Amino acid sequence: MRTMHIKRAHNGRHPAIKAALLIAGLLIASVAWATLPPPTPAQQQAAAEKKAKADAQAAKDKESLAASMDAVTARWRSRAGEQGWKTHPAVAIAAAAPAAGAAVTAAGPANPPPAGSPGAGNTTPAGQAAVIPAIKSEKLGTAPPSEDVKKYPTQAQPRDATPTVQKDTPKNVSKK
Fold first, then answer.
1. According to the model, what pLDDT value does residue 40 have?
2. Residue 33: its H or E element
3. Residues contacting 146, CB < 8 A, separation 6+
4. DSSP, residue by residue, 70-112
5. Which of 28, 100, 129, 144 has the fewest CB atoms in 10 Å of its CB?
6. pTM, 2 dp
7. Cα–Cα distance between 103 and 105 in angstroms, integer?
8. Are 29 and 37 in contact (CB under 8 A)?
9. How far apart are CA 160 and CA 16, in angstroms?
C-alpha cells in the first residue's frame, strides 16, 4: 500500500512579509507626498478660477432645481383643486443662515436674515440666543412627563406565578 503525503498549498507570502511590504510602501508614498513642491501662483489662480466656475454651476443647478420643484408643486396644486383633493397652504421656509465665512461689516452681516426669523437684527451670538425659544425636553427634565409615562416601576412577579404566555397555547386561536 502506498502512503500518500498531503502537500500544503502555498497561498502567497507570509503575513509578516505582507505587512512589512505594506508599511514600506506607505512610507515611500508619504515621503513622495511630502516632497511635492507647493503650487505656483498660476496653479493657485487656475484652481481658484476652477472653484469659482464650479460654485457658479452649483448655484445655477440649485436655482434650476428650485424652479422645477416650484413648477411641479404648482401643477400638483392646480390638479388637486380640480380633482377635489384637500390642499393646505404652502409652508414658508426660513432662509438659511449665512455661511461662517460671510462678510460682516459695521452695519451688520452682508446677507441679513429675514425679519422675524431667529437672528434678525441680532448679530451677536448672545442676541441670537435670546430670540430662539427654549427647547422643552422630557429627557432633559425641561418639560413635564407625558400622560402615558409610568407613574411607578413595574412590580416584580412572585416566583410561583404562572407565566403570562403558555407554551401549549395554539398560535391562532380562531382555527381550533
1. 92
2. helix 15-34
3. 138
4. HHHHHHHHHHHHHHT----PPPP-PPPPPPTT--EETTEESSP
5. 100
6. 0.35
7. 6
8. no
9. 60
Q: Which pLDDT belongs to residue 36?
A: 72
Q: Which residue has the cell 441679513?
A: 112
Instruction: Assess contact for 113 and 93: CB atoms under 8 A.
Output: no
Structure confidence by residue, pLDDT tens digits, 121-163: 555 555 555 556 677 888 887 888 788 777 777 778 888 887 7
C-alpha torsion angle, residues 132, 138, 141, 146 (rounded to 10): 120
Q: State the cell numbers at 54.
A: 464650479
CB atoms within 10 A of CB 52: 10
Integer Cα distance of 172 and 170 in angstroms? 6
Determine the Cα–Cα distance for residues 50 and 52; give it in Å rounded to an integer. 5
Q: With cut-offs at 50, 70 and 90, classify the pLDDT of residue 119.
A: very low
Question: 105: which strand partners?
Answer: 108
